[in-house]
Structure prediction request, 496 residues.
Amino acid sequence: MGKNPTITVDADYVIAPITPLTYGGFTEHMGRCIYGGIYDPGNSLSDANGFRTDVIEALKELKTPVVRYPGGNFVATYHWLDGVGPKEHRPKRPELAWQGVESNQFGTDEFMQWCELVGAEPYLCLNFGTGTLDEALGWLEYCNSSADTYYANLRRKNGRENPYNVKYWALGNEVWGPWQVLQSTPSAYSHQAYQWAKALKLQDPSIKLILCGKDGLSSWDHQVLKECVKVDAHGLNGDLTRSLIDMHSIHLYTASQDYVANIVAPRAAERAIQITSGLIDLARIENGVSPSVPKQKICFDEWNVWDPVRAPGELGAEEKYTLSDALAVAVWLNVFIRQAAHIGMATIAQSVNVISPLMTSPTGIHKQMTWWPLKLFSEHMRGDSLAVHVCAPAYEGSTTPAWIRAATDTPWLDVSAARDDDGFTNLAVVNVSPDEDFQTVMNVREGYMRSFTLTAEGMGSVAKEDGIDPIKHDTWYAKGQIEYLFPRHSLTILKF
Ligand code: AHR
Prediction:
């Protein structure tokens, strides 16, 4: 395959700080995510509230900073009032997105308590299907108000004195999709989103609002950004330096039957992020938004490897992940690190049982292959994103779908770099090749180097049920120019 690849990290060139919110999660009322996943009353693995403690421990291990809730598509017919108060009085409702019945035994207060146990911030998505602005304002008041008003008092009556102070609120989910109970158009959605944003921020100016985008590459994204990214004509509480919209949400799932194409597919997200960032710039220029107004970032609030056709489970959502998928997740995370300048938040879809690295059964929890790259990145790839130059032969095979190939070049080594708060440089390297180890030459500072390597026998390997950590560790003394061999189909974190 030609000459050896080289990796050069420019430690003086900081791209941007990596937001800790890059490592967020998502729990939707879908399949076994909530019921039988995070909430399983009566199970010996659950606490007195019915929360599965093994799930909480696993998410704490990942240092999950934020969790999106309650959907996803589910939210389009969700009425939050159904899910608060005494459980025996909560109504059962037909659930239209996933065609089930919602018992409402898990609702807002349960989610907030659960987030506190995980140590994560809640991120709530508003119902832009059958919901009303009144309901949304009521939910905001219930969660965030300390006043002597109806919904704040309802929260107190339900046992919670202090407000939850929910900072992140999404203005709907995938409202552009034909599968939605109520599908919208860019102009109808923009009008609604902007009016709701104004009312929500009048009630609580401290919140951050997230606009509903598509995949970042669409005319939907272009139009809604153009309509909504502007400075409010009235000036929010007289403040003309703020915009009502703080982030723009985009979603993308990747997958391919071909193991290698599957791993490189997430590089399409890199292009989506760059284009979205350009569309945000364009909207700001066209609407005369002053550069002193902080630029809206991207909230990548659904991302993962998902093929609903191949995945088992009633909803095609209980993915059984292979090493190829784990390496794809590592490429996804490399993209977020490289594009740190544009990422305000990223939440993997989803956190438990549904398209998830964590699978529960009544008797335990299984950490799938894709759990391990999340853990490695969350532990090591923090701080500042650093510029890194990779010179490696390119993968020339087929990729499906074709737009992935059009999106980007695909070197055999996919790399990102970060300098953490302790001054360590951390390099994340995915060797995409199914059959070739790559010897590289790098310059490093004098000192101890550590490596963490995730690999397995073949690309189709799945994680063993024994829960034993499959990551190999090594430590050695190094100085100046070193040679390092990245094994075929592996993820390596080098720390120096
Ligand atoms: O994450 C699963 C589903 O995928 C979500 O409910 C929806 O937003 C997306 O289409």
Residues 267-286 form the longest helix (20 residues). The pocket of alpha-L-arabinofuranose is lined by residues 28, 30, 71-73, 173-174, 302, 349-350, 355 (CB under 6 Å).
